[in-house]
Amino acid sequence: MTTCMNPGLPQAEIGIFGGSGFYELLDDATEYKIWTPYGEPSDVVAVGTLGGRSVAFMPRHGKNHTIAPHEVNYRANLWAFHELGVIRVIGPSACGSLSPEVAPGDFVVVDQFVDRTNGRADTFAEGGRIYHVSSADPYCPELRQLAIDSCHRLGIKVHETGTVVVIQGPRFSTRAESQWFARQGWTVVNMTQYPEGYLARELEMCYVNVALITDYDAGVNADDAVTNVNVMEVFANNIDKLKALIDDMVPTIPEQRHCLCKDALASAAM
Questions:
Q1: What is the pTM assigned to this prediction?
Q2: Which is it for strands 93-97 and 188-190: parallel, antiparallel or unpaired?
Q3: Cα–Cα distance for residue pair 68/137, rounded to 1 Å
Q4: Which of the residues 30, 120, 148, 211 has an alpha carbon 20 to 30 A from that of 160?
Q5: Is 215 in the active site?
Q6: Cβ contacts of residue 201 below 8 Å, gap of 6+?
Q7: Annotated catalytic residue: which of 43, 106, 111, 217?
Q8: Is 217 a catalytic residue?
């Protein structure tokens, strides 16, 4: 894998956020340092091919996982993909379950989010650019169905809908918070889904999240508390399933988009 520092960038159709274990998915990958109007992205972007498609990959927390969820420069990350021509983004993430029916090792293809973060730069609408983008259905329906179909083909237990509540981090929830989230009917808890997915919508990108369940959140099981050691252990034990899902899903993505994501700004500008 080589590193390119020059301004000449290739084109990539699909962007993937995730951890360093995903690098081996890409063939003939080259790394690019990309500068954005919003500062530096989390890391260099690796561009290569997967299933005959041009793919860009970026580790959301940096290669060595040195960037905390509340410190991720989400705008720079999405803008870097935008500079490469990415129009579809796959954003897998580790999540805690808020329901006894959603077990560690399961996948959830979420269709809604609830934002409980604070102070994050969460829009490109600034400096006189004003637009109000619909977030009624924040995840791309086309990509969601493709992810679900891949799970079924691979025999992965998948929950086809779910709401992710996004907390600020880096701390985990208290039992009281977790129980409150569960009472609202929310499905999983995470620290990175907002504003990542929404910013993709502002750039008229399609975005899908595949939540890999690593634990029951603190309020679900009164006998257990969430620890980072347990979370990372379950994630490591299931990362091959996530890689298999992406490997299966990417070649099925059609070249033409028929969803509303591509026209998100058409009626949003003031």
A1: 0.91
A2: antiparallel
A3: 27
A4: 120
A5: yes
A6: 133, 135, 138, 207, 261, 264
A7: 217
A8: yes
